[in-house]
Amino acid sequence: MNYEGLKIPFHVGIIMDGNGRWAKERGMTRSQGHEAGFENLKKLSEYIYAKGVKVLSVYAFSTENFKRSKQEVDFLMNLFEKKFKEYSELMKKRNVKIVFSGKKADPLPKSVIRIMKEIEEDTKTNTNGILNICINYGGHLEIVEATKKISSLVQEGKLKIEDITEESFSHYLFQDLPPIDFLIRTSGEVRISNFMLYQLSYAEMYFPSIYFPAFDENCFDEAMLVYNKRDRRFGGVKDEDKNH
Ligand code: FPP
Known about the structure:
Elements: E1 11-15, H1 19-25, H2 30-50, E2 55-62, H3 70-93, E3 96-101, H4 110-123, E4 129-137, H5 139-155, H6 166-169, E5 182-185, E6 204-206, H7 217-229
Helix pairs in contact: 1-2, 2-3, 3-4
The protein binds farnesyl diphosphate.
C-alpha cells in the first residue's frame, strides 16, 4: 500500500499473541506456532521499518511466561538462542540497533543472556531505527527496578530528588525509549498484560482478532489506516471544540 500522506507512528509496540491458537487450528504443535510467529516477525519488522517507523518494541517473553510448561519454555529459549543471531544479521543490513528490555538474569539461560549482550554490542552504533525485544520483561518490574536505581543514586548523593522528573525517569528504565504511539495486540485479547506500562500512557491501541503468525503486511496497512483515523489529543481539547 502507498503510505503517501499518512501519519506514521514513531514508536510501534506489538504484543505478538495467538501463536498457540494459530497452530492448534492447523493441527500443529505450539512450538510450530512460535516458530511461525518468529518467521512472521522477521518479515513484518522489515516492512515496518521500510514504511518509516523508527522504533519497534515487541513482547517476546514476559516474566510470567516462565509459568508455562518446561517443554514450552525450553523450546522458546532454544528458539531465542538459535534465531536471535539470524535476526540481528537481518537488522544489521537495515542499520537497526537491537536492544533488549527485561532482566538479563536468572531464570533466563546464561547462553541466551550472552547472545543478547553480544547483539546489543554488535548493533549499538546502528542509526536507522531501534528494535526493542522484551524478554524476561514485566512492566511493574521495569518501574520497580528504575525506582531502585534512582534510590541508590539519591542515597549515594549522586542524584537530587528535585532532579527526578517525568522525562528523566525514563532514563532509568530498562531502555530509554520514546513513548509508544501505537500498540497492536493480535488475537483479539483486549488487555495490556504488563507490557511497557510507563511508555504506553498515551498510546493509541488496536486489537485485531487475527493471530500473530497471520498478521502480515496487509494487516499492518489496515492498522495504519486505523491509526490515521484516531484523533490524538494527549488529554487536551481541539481548538474548534473549546465551546464552554
Ligand atoms: C504469545 O502467543 C506468544 C509468545 C509468548 C511468544 C512470542 C514469541 C515469538 C513470536 C517468537 C519471537 C522470536 C524472537 C526470536 C524475537 P501464545 O503462546 O500466548 O498463543 P496462545 O495465546 O494462542 O496460546
